[in-house]
């Protein structure tokens, strides 16, 4: 197999969020008191779910809590120590891109690393063919 130079880079991770559920799914009835925010929104791209407003635990109102960027929880406090809660989810995709150079001119067989892509926590870029003479590396 042929030998090539490869450059090793930091792999920069980006998570994108899309396709939020159209309706709420009931989880159940619980007891206790929850403090959450009065407003929520969804922004496709790198934001996902978010909440806004001053945290409250008011009775007879809907409040929202972001468990993570893929799930929004909605609570309704009845005022008697009980509340119903629902959720909405969205899709998430993780993508990688080339970051800062870590090491240049790593010699490896063709196919060891991607030509230009992510593998094993790093971004790899294939460079030039390593010159050879009679099947041996030319080191001078």
Secondary structure: elements and pairs:
Layout: E1 3-18, E2 25-31, E3 39-43, E4 48-52, E5 62-68, E6 71-77, E7 82-89, E8 91-109, E9 116-119, E10 122-129, E11 132-133, E12 136-137
Antiparallel strand pairs: 1-8, 1-10, 2-7, 3-4, 5-6, 6-7, 9-10, 11-12
- Beta-strand percentage? over 45%
Distance between the termini: 21 Å
- Side-by-side strand order of the widest sheet: 8-1-10-9
Largest sheet: 4 strands, antiparallel
Structural class: mainly beta
Q: Helix and strand string, N-terminal first?
A: EEEEEEEEEEEE
Number of strands: 12
Oligomer: single chain
Note the overall shape.
Answer: rod-shaped
| Helix content class | under 10%
Descriptive notes:
This protein is an all-beta fold. The chain has strands at residues 3-18, 25-31, 39-43, 48-52, 62-68, 71-77, 82-89, 91-109, 116-119, 122-129, 132-133, 136-137. It folds into 2 domains: 3-13 and 94-137, no CATH class; 20-89, no CATH class. The chain is rod-shaped and about 85 Å long. It starts with a strand and ends with a strand.
């Amino acid at each position: 197999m042929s030998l090539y130079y490869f450059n090793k880079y930091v792999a920069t991770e980006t998570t994108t969020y899309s396709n939020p559920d159209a309706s709420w799914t009931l989880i159940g009835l619980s007891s206790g008191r929850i403090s959450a925010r009065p407003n929520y929104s969804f922004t496709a791209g790198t934001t996902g779910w978010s909440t806004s407003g001053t945290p409250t635990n008011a009775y007879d109102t809907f409040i929202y809590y972001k468990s993570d960027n893929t799930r929004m929880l909605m609570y309704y406090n009845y005022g008697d120590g009980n509340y119903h809660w629902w959720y909405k989810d969205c899709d998430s995709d993780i993508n990688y891109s080339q970051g800062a150079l870590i090491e240049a001119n790593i010699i490896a067989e063709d196919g060891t690393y991607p030509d230009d892509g992510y593998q094993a926590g790093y971004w790899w870029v294939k460079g030039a063919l390593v010159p050879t003479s009679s099947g041996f590396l030319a080191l001078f």
